[in-house]
Amino acid sequence: MIDQVQLKPEGLFTKLKNLQQVKKTLEEEVKEILVVQRAKKEEEDALNGDAMMQLELNHQREELVKHYGYKIQETKLKHRKIRMKFESQLHQLMEQHKNLSSVFTPQRLPKEIESAEYSTEQLQKAERMKLEQLTKQMDGLSHSQNTEPFLETTEKSP
């Protein structure tokens, strides 16, 4: 029985050493797991940060796309207004051209020329008459100016 009691403490020591070795191994494994866990957490945090930056960048780009969409619509409206104004002006010009082409047809052109020449002659006659009247008035003025000094000298001589 003594051997069994002695074996028991030796067995217990061996068992204790084995358990201590297992404990040491498990502690090292736990340390490795904690290191890996920290690395994974840091990697996850970095990925979350990247994801947040991407979300913010996407939001900014969506806002930019909206802004450009509004600018495009605004430009389209401006172009539409310009086109409508141009079409209106073109329509007016076409109507004016139709009216002018009906007034100045080859058949009416000689009459229009004759009328314009007659109007020119009448205006020239009126201008000549005005010129003659002005000439007469100037002659009258110069004659009266020439007679005034004569009258003044005759009045002084007695």
How would the global form be characterised? Answer: rod-shaped
Rg (CA only): 59 Å
The total beta strand count reads 0
Distance between the termini: 195 Å
Low-confidence stretches at least 5 residues in length (pLDDT < 50)?
none
**What share of the residues does DSSP label as strand, in percent?**
under 5%
The main pleated sheet reads as: none
Helical content (DSSP H or I, runs of 4+): over 70%
Order of helices and strands: HH
Q: Kindly state the mean pLDDT as a whole number? A: 87
Give me the secondary-structure category: mainly alpha
Number of discrete helical segments:
2
Describe this entry's structure for a reader.
With 158 residues, the chain is mainly alpha-helical. The protein has a domain of 50 residues. The mean pLDDT is 87. The protein is rod-shaped and about 170 Å long. The chain is 95% helix and 0% strand. InterPro entries: SYCE1. Pfam families: SYCE1 (PF15233). Keywords: Coiled coil, Meiosis. Belongs to the SYCE family.
Brief summary of the model shown:
By secondary structure, the protein is an all-alpha fold. The chain is 95% helix and 0% strand. It contains 2 helices and no strands.
List its salient traits:
single chain, 158 residues, mainly alpha, 2 helices, 95% helix, 0% strand, rod-shaped
How do the strands and helices of this protein lay out in sequence?
Blueprint: H1 2-103, H2 109-156
